[in-house]
Design brief:
Structural class of chain B: alpha/beta
Radius of gyration of chain B: 31 Å
Strand order of the largest sheet of chain B: 2-1-3-4-5
CATH class of the largest domain in chain B: Alpha Beta
CATH superfamily of chain A: Response regulator
Number of helices of chain B: 10
Number of domains of chain B: 3
CATH architecture of chain A: 3-Layer(aba) Sandwich
Number of helices of chain A: 5
Shape of chain B: elongated
CATH class of chain A: Alpha Beta
Largest interface: A-B, 23 and 26 residues
Helix content of chain B: 40-55%
Radius of gyration of chain A: 14 Å
Order of helices and strands of chain B: EHEHEHEHEHHEHHEEHEEHEE
Order of helices and strands of chain A: EHEHEHEHEH
Oligomer: heterodimer
CATH topology of chain A: Rossmann fold
Number of strands of chain A: 5
Chain lengths: ~140, ~375
């Protein structure tokens, strides 16, 4: 069965650019274009991974989602790939190396735009890491 | 009235306090008085005056001490010292220590009113200047975040769709079409990088870097910079030869911004060097500094351009058409190096190559 992913990002053009890559990668992809719909989707359906844009709306509204997930025992287990438009000093310093925001159990951060290979690699490795962590429990 | 200007007078002579109060009667000021330095300072804390008159010669703590203490409490409070006629030299001394003006005894009511008015005016201007500076910083930050979002978001979306398109068409694209994709991607990447470095200049107060300085080995930021330039070097088949001395003493600095310095300088060296050449990066100890040299065998910089290359937005009058320079990297590099109490210099010969040398003081532990 193919893995289910959710993208929460308010830029439909950007979303189209990552969704088609993930579609081609064999994932089943849902999209929410605002934090509210995103949270609703997370609660309604079980996802294997969330791709989250931090800088939505007028500020860092994506962080609100990360905070809510952190407080929820069930949602905490979903791995999160944070996609940010902010230039991350850390990402600059360690190109290619993972940056862990530690919002939830398993997460990582990449900068927009994301190269297809990197995107697919990160998605796969995060899902695997989350599964391994779950198996430990 | 709430926002009447406030004046505090500290003088041990009752007659002075009285006459000052008399003179200012009916003027739009709120007045408080104290007869010695210690009680004056206590009063100052709650009264929060705009202007303080201090007698230099008082029993107890001296006027100079009061002057210093007020400067520590709130440097925007305007201070005028009251002195005897014969002691102009101590008035000068007081003004060196931060007093705005002096009032020689004895004074006429007009003199006193004039100096009071000027002092109050001065305070107003100082507060306005501070408010303006704050507003400017705020605007700068807001501008940066607007540029960041409004300019970068569409570019990211474009680049992302190009990535996706190339990915989907991978098997159907011929070499010529693939090359076009590469060109589009490379130019967009440059554009995004340029916005980032502009943002860096606009949004970041480089002096604030100093707060986060730690002792570090210069080898680290150099290695990070070279690593992040790997792709660019590979594209031009340029070898970056790095000779960083082992066990060099530490420097005091910020690793991220030092890496940025080297990315900017080495990146330039790569851009202006012919394909297949070498760029040499060396670090060695020179007396009390670590000297890092970046040497290329590129097109070189014309002599008339050399004095301007650290100015920002300067790319040489020679009409260089080499792609990718945005004329601000070296300006940023210089600012960062100077924040580290270091220096940066350049030697160049057209057609032969260019050597940049960054010198940073060794950390004295």
């Amino acid at each position: 069965m193919s893995k289910k992913l959710l993208i929460i990002d308010d830029d439909p053009d950007f979303v189209s650019g990552i969704k088609s890559i993930l579609d081609a990668g064999g994932y089943e992809v849902d999209v929410a274009y605002n934090p509210k719909d995103g949270l609703r989707a997370l609660q309604a359906k079980k996802y294997d991974l969330l791709l989250l844009d931090i800088m939505m709306g007028r500020g860092a509204e994506g962080i609100m989602i990360a905070r809510k997930m952190r407080k929820d025992a069930k949602l905490r287990e979903i791995p999160v790939l944070i996609i940010t438009g902010m230039r991350e000093q850390i990402a600059f310093l360690f190109p290619g190396e993972p940056v862990h925001p530690r919002f939830v159990d398993v997460d990582e951060m990449v900068e927009k735009p994301v190269e297809p290979k990197l995107l697919l690699d990160k998605v796969q490795s995060l899902i695997q890491a989350a599964e391994a962590k779950k198996a430990e429990k | 009235m709430e926002n009447k200007a406030k004046i505090l007078i500290i003088d041990d002579e009752e007659v002075v306090l009285d006459s000052c109060a008399q003179i200012l009667k009916g003027a739009p000021y709120q007045l408080a008085t104290a007869s010695d330095g210690t009680s004056g300072l206590t009063l100052l804390q709650e009264f929060r005056p705009d202007l303080v008159f201090v007698d230099l010669k008082m029993p107890g703590i001296s006027g100079f001490e009061v002057l210093e203490k007020i400067g520590e409490i709130d440097p925007t409070i305007v201070i005028v010292v009251i002195t005897g006629f014969a002691t102009v030299s101590s008035a000068v001394e007081a003004m060196k220590k931060g007093a705005y003006d002096f009032l020689p005894k004895p004074f006429t009511p007009d003199e006193f009113r004039l100096i009071a008015r000027r002092g109050i005016e001065r305070r107003k201007l100082m507060l306005e200047a501070i408010a303006l500076r704050k507003e400017r910083d705020l605007l700068r930050e807001q501008f940066a975040s607007i540029v960041s979002h409004e300019l970068k978001a569409p570019l990211s979306a474009i680049q992302q769709n190009i990535f996706a398109l190339e990915f989907e068409l991978e098997k159907r694209l011929g070499p010529e079409q693939k090359e076009k994709f590469e060109r589009i991607k490379a130019r967009l990447t440059d554009l995004l990088k340029m916005i980032n470095s502009w943002l860096r200049v606009i949004a970041v107060d480089i002096d604030r870097l100093k707060e986060g300085f730690v002792p570090l080995s210069i080898a680290e930021p150099i290695a990070n910079a070279i690593e992040s330039l790997d792709t660019l070097a590979a594209r031009k088949n340029i070898k970056i030869v790095s000779e960083v001395g082992q066990d060099l003493p530490a420097v005091l600095g910020d690793k991220v911004s030092l890496a940025e310095v080297f990315v900017n300088i080495i990146g330039n060296a790569l851009k202006y060097s012919p394909d297949g050449s070498n760029v040499r990066v060396t670090a060695r100890q020179e007396e009390q500094t670590i000297a890092i040299s970046i040497e290329d065998s590129g097109i070189g910089i014309a002599e008339e351009d050399l004095p301007h290359i650290f100015d920002g937005f300067y790319r040489g009058k020679g009409g260089q058409t080499v792609a990718g320079g945005h004329g601000i990297g070296l300006a940023v590099a210089r600012q960062i190096v100077e924040a580290h109490n270091g220096s940066i210099e350049v030697e160049s010969e057209v057609g032969t190559g260019t050597t940049f040398t960054v010198r940073l003081p060794i950390h004295q532990s």
